[in-house]
Give the backbone structure.
Amino acid sequence: MNFWIIQGLNGLAFGSLLFILASGFSLIFGLMRIVNLSHGAYFMLGAYVGLSAIEAGVNFWIAILIGGGAICILGTVIERFILRRLTGQPLAQVLVTLGIAFIIADTCVWIWTGDPRPVPMPHELAGAFRISHLAFPIYRLFVIGVAFVLAAALWFLLERSRLGAMIRAGVDDLTMARAMGIRTSLLFSVVFCLGSALAGAGGVLAGPILSVYPGLDTDMLPLALVVVILGGVGSLLGAFVGSLIIGFIYSYGQALFPDLAYMILFLPMVLVLTLRPTGLFGKQAF
Amino acid sequence: MRSPVSTLSLSLIGLVALLVMPWLVTSEYYINIASQIAIAAILALSLNLLVGWGGMISLGHAAYLGVAAYLSIYLTTQAGFGHLTGALIAIGATTGLAMIFGYLALRASGLGFLMITLALGQILWGVAYRWSSLTGGDNGLGGLKRPHPFGLNLMDPTTFYYFVLVFLGIALLCMARFMQSGLGQSLQGTRDQPRRMHALGYNVWLIQWLSFVFAGFWGAVAGLLYAYYNQFVSPQALHLTTSAETLLMVIAGGTGTLLGPVVGAALVVILKNVVSAYITRWLILLGVIFVVIVLFMPEGLVPGARRVLRALKNSPHTDKDADVSSIVRDRTQ
C-alpha cells in the first residue's frame, strides 16, 4: 500500500514537471503549428543556466527566474529572426528547431561537460513531510503545487482574459482571427516567449529531482510529444491530463519493471492513436 | 532535369568509378568509408521513398536500422541462430515493426506523422538504453562475426565493399522499379493531391502504408549490413541524431530523385569522418547544416550550392521561387 502511495506521488511530481514543459509545447503547436523540437533543449539549457546561477551564489528562487528569463530571451530571438522568416512552411520550421536543438545540446556538453550535475535543493524545502509512517520529500509536494497553480493560472489566462480569447481564436481559425484584426504576429511572439520561459524555468525546477545531464533534452522531448499526442493539440486540459497519465505510467513502470519503463509508454500511444487519433481532448486531427 | 541520356551516362560513369574504386584507392580506411557510404545510402534511399515520393517526413527512420542490427546480433550471438536464419528473422521482424509503426504514424499526416515517428523512435532508443539485460544498455551488443556467404571472406574490406555494393545496386533497381510501378506512381499522387486521389477511388491510406512498410524493409536491410560492418550495435544506432543524419542525407542530395540520397549519404558520411578527425563537435555542425540548408538552400545542398555559385557568378537577381516545399512538400496547409 505504501509503495503505491509513494510511487503515485512520485508520478504526480514527474507529471507536474512534464506539464510545465508540455503545456508550452502544446500551446505553441496549437497556435503556431510549430512543432518546437528545441523544447527539450530549452528545458535542459534552462536547468544548466539555473545551476550556474546557483553555483555563483544566487538564491534558488532567483535562479528559476534567471533560467526562465534566459530561455525566454533565447526563444524570442529564435522566433523573431528565424522561425518568422519561415512562416507558412511548417516542415521547414520543424527542421530548423531540430537543428537548433542539436546546437544547444552540444554547446551544453561543451560548457558544462558530460557529467550529470545535481541542482542543489533550496534548503527551506529540504526534508520530508510525514503522515504516520509515510514520508515524502517536501520539494516534490512543492513541485506538484507549482504545476497545479500554473495550470490554474494558464486556464485563467486562456479562458478568462482578453489575450486568452485571442489565443483561442487563433488556435481555432488563424485566418479568421487575423481577418478580425487580431495581431497574430504579436500573439505568436507572446506565446512562444511564454512557452520558452516555462521550459527554462521548468528545467531549473526539475534540477533537484532529475539533476541535469547531457541527454536530458532527448529524454524529455519525446515525453512531451507523447503528452501532446495523448492529450490533443493545443488543449490545456489535454496537456494536463496527458502529463499526469504519462507521469504515473512512467513512475509505476520504473518501479515495477525498470527495464521496460520506456516500453510501457507505447501502450497509451497505441490506445489513443487507434481509438481517438485527435487525442483525448483535441478538436482537430494533427 | 537533365536529358535521360546524360543521366544514364553519368550513372554509368559513377558505376564504373564505384567498381574500380578499390584498385585506385588501396587504403583500407577509404574502402571502409566507401562501405559506410553504401550502407548509409541504402538507408537514405528507403527514407527518400517516404520523404521524397510520399511527402511523409519521418524523424524515426533509425528505428529500422537499429532494430534490425540489434536483432541480427542478438539472434546470432546469443540465441544460437545461424547467420542466414538470424538475418531473415531480423529483417522479417523489423518489417513487421514497420507495419505496426506505419499503422500508428499514419493515423496522422504532416506534422503529426513527424511527431509520432519521432516519439516511437525515441521510445525504442529508451528501450535499447534501459533494457540492459537484453540489449547490453549503453555498452551495446557486440561479438558478431561477419558471415561467409558462398565462401566469400567478408572480413576483407574490399570483399565486404563489393558485398555491400551489390545490395546498394539491388536497392537502386528496386527503387527505380518502385517509382515506375503503379504503387509508386499513386504514392506520388497521394503526396501531391491526397484528396483528389481519394476521390478517384484510390485507397490513400493503404498506398502510404504499403510504401511505409517497403521503406521499413529496406531500412532493415541497411541495419543488417550496418551490423555486419560494425560487428557491434549501441543505442546510438536508434537515436534521434541517426534519424536526423539520414534525413539530412535525403535533403542534402535533393529529395525525390533516385541518386540524390546516394550523393547525400556520401556527403554526410565523408563530412562526418573528416570533421570527427579534427574536432569532437559533430552535433553542432549537424545542427548548423540543418539551419543553413533550411534558411538558405531549401532545395537541397547540391542544387542549392549550384544556384548560389551561379548567382555569385552571374547577375545579382536571385530567384525567390525556391522554398522548402520543393524539397519537403507541405501537406499540412
